[in-house]
Design goal:
Blueprint: H1 11-16, H2 29-35, H3 48-60, H4 65-78, H5 80-89, H6 91-98, H7 102-108, H8 110-113, E1 120-123, H9 130-135, E2 144-148, H10 165-178, E3 185-191, H11 197-200, H12 216-232, E4 237-240, H13 245-255, E5 261-263, H14 264-284, E6 293-296, H15 300-315, H16 320-324, E7 327-331, E8 334-335, H17 360-367, E9 371-374, H18 384-393, E10 398-401, H19 413-419, E11 425-428, E12 435-437, E13 440-442, E14 445-446, H20 453-463, H21 470-482, H22 486-490, H23 501-518, H24 530-536
Parallel strand pairs: 1-3, 2-3, 2-4, 4-5, 6-7, 6-9, 9-10, 10-11, 11-14
Antiparallel strand pairs: 7-8, 12-13
């Protein structure tokens, strides 16, 4: 076929097929006339509010959350402005649908529910021409890339190219929660294969049908991608997402001082959990220096949280070695102690001189922690006996069951409150419903990274920061903790309600931008009013005018 002979689509038809410019039935009479849309749309002109009402009605008529996810993704594919208006105006209802927990099921079934391409797939077969692949992206002003290789998707493990649902979902949150322009967001899947036999035997799997590549070939592809991304999208922020533990720590260490990047599973999780601990001090009356934290899980999230706690303690004047003594870890082999011998490099700073045990209950009774943090991906590990022990040791125990999605949570909110006689300060990774315990309404906190990474990204974009440093995440954690109100705390909530998340993100963005300007990391002059400058760059889901 000679593609040069295919006639150009009319301007109006092009706009109807461009999700960033399409207005659907909201095109005015004048626009329909000027763009040649008359007859291509039903005659009635609907308001943006009327379209929103239609979407909500259709969405709420769906039977399952996966059906609702598919409906919302289809809406995003045809009309992003309407999609983001609906999500922003109903964030508490929509966030569990476009991200965790529903996105976990969507990723597991990605090959079976695939409808339309979104984002870029860069595979081992693209070696030597990755720059060409990135140049196929239609928007040259990409400011944020979320990239994954699909090896550790939430708590679900290796999902290969099915993991593309995570970058797509994360970038939707950048826009919904912080107002990053969707045209500046680029999801990327680095497909290096998968070790998931179920996917390799699935005829509908869309990724490379081969075992996961590691070592030099993997590193070479990542290096080519990072180099190409910097060339095609100068100054772009790269967020590493859901890589396996070994690669995640290596990539962050390798690139953090070379390019503008961060790892959300390490640094974002660390910041949001630290914020919850800091906010809880106003309930317990115990400063951070008095905390003894026991982690169940010693992967990216656990080490990231511990590093954030240590950074905060050091910033308060404590020696780093002493600060690490406040953190204890249990992994799949038991308590992280010296008698176990050699452990992964990322875990070594937290190896303790103590008696080993593989029992979480025994570890709780021995260490007497003030906080128990689960990032293990193992549901039900916070048993009744464990939570009761925490409640016996502490008047107000911190019980954070952070594994995602909900099916992987170490315990439910109701279990934590019931087993602690209503005294637990609870947080989870995925949302749980409000619990009524002995007549008191208890609102679980959701320690979701969406409270952190969108604001950090917005601050980087606003300041044109060349690097992301740990000071930015520490500032983000303290800002988030400071925005928890007394009313929130009275209900047991240690994070602000999601309805305030755009305000939270803007406040974090201001602090991040301030650090970028102060530390000489910004590629633009500091404005007179940083907060006003941040707000001026926030995307609003408002239709453009064409006539």
């Amino acid at each position: 076929m000679n593609y040069e002979t295919i006639p150009e689509l009319h301007r109006g038809v092009k706009i109807l097929h461009d999700p960033l410019r399409n207005k659907g039935t909201a095109f005015t009479e004048a626009e329909r006339e000027a763009l040649g849309l008359r007859g291509l749309l039903p005659p009635k002109v609907h308001s943006h509010a009327g379209q929103e009402l239609r979407v909500l009605g259709a969405l709420r008529s769906k039977v399952t959350d996966l059906e609702r996810y598919l409906y919302l993704m289809a809406l995003q594919d045809r009309n992003e402005t309407l999609f983001f208006r609906v999500v922003i105006n109903h964030i508490e209802e929509m966030m569990p649908l476009i991200y965790t927990p529903t996105v976990g099921q969507a990723c597991q079934e990605f090959g079976h529910i695939y409808q339309r391409p979104r984002g870029l797939y860069v595979s081992l077969e693209d070696r030597g021409r990755v720059k060409e692949v990135l140049e196929n992206w239609p928007h040259r002003d990409a400011r944020i890339i979320v990239v994954t290789d699909g090896e550790r998707i939430l708590g679900l493990g290796d999902l290969g190219s099915n993991g593309m649902g995570i970058p797509i979902g994360k970038l939707a949150l950048y826009t919904a929660c912080a107002g990053v322009n969707p045209a500046q967001c680029l999801p990327v899947m680095l497909d290096v294969g998968t070790d998931n036999e179920t996917l390799l035997n699935d005829r509908l799997y869309n990724g490379l049908e081969r075992k996961r590549s590691r070592g030099e070939r993997f590193d070479a592809l990542v290096e080519e991608f990072v180099t190409a991304a910097e060339e095609v999208f100068p100054g772009v922020l790269i967020q590493f997402e859901d890589f396996g533990n070994a690669n995640a720590f290596r990539l962050l260490a390798r690139y953090r001082d070379q390019i503008c990047c961060f790892d959300d599973d390490i640094q974002g999780t660390g910041a949001v959990t630290l914020a919850g601990i800091l906010a809880s001090q106003r309930i317990t009356g115990s400063p951070l220096a008095d905390q003894r934290i026991l982690f169940l899980g010693a992967g990216e999230a656990g080490i990231g949280i511990a590093d954030a706690v240590v950074a905060a303690l050091v910033d308060e004047g404590m020696d780093a070695a002493e600060a690490r003594e406040h953190c204890w870890f249990m992994d799949s082999q038991g308590l992280l102690v010296k008698e176990r011998g050699e452990v992964a490099v990322s875990k070594r700073p937290y190896v303790r001189e103590a008696k080993g045990t593989r029992s979480l209950l025994e570890a709780v009774n021995m260490i007497e922690p003030t906080a128990l943090i689960g990032i293990s991906g193992q549901p039900g590990k916070f048993t009744r006996e464990v939570v009761e022990a925490m409640a016996r040791i502490n008047k107000r125990p911190l019980v954070f069951a952070l594994s995602n999605p909900t099916s992987k949570s170490e315990c439910t909110a109701e279990q934590a409150y019931t087993w602690s006689e209503g005294r637990a300060i609870f947080a989870s990774g995925s949302p749980f419903d409000t619990v009524l315990y002995e007549g008191k309404k208890l609102v679980p906190g959701q320690g979701n990274n969406a409270y952190i990474f969108p604001g950090v990204g917005l601050g980087v974009i606003a300041s044109r920061a060349r690097r992301v440093n740990d000071k930015m995440f520490l500032a983000a954690a303290r800002t988030l903790a400071g925005l928890v109100t007394e009313g929130d705390l009275e209900q047991g909530r240690i994070y602000p309600p999601l309805s305030r998340i755009r305000y939270v993100s803007a406040a974090i963005a201001k602090e991040v931008a301030t650090i970028a300007y102060r530390d000489g990391l910004a590629d633009r002059e500091e404005p007179d009013d940083i907060q006003a400058d941040v707000y001026a760059q926030v995307y609003q889901p408002v239709y453009p005018h064409y006539a």
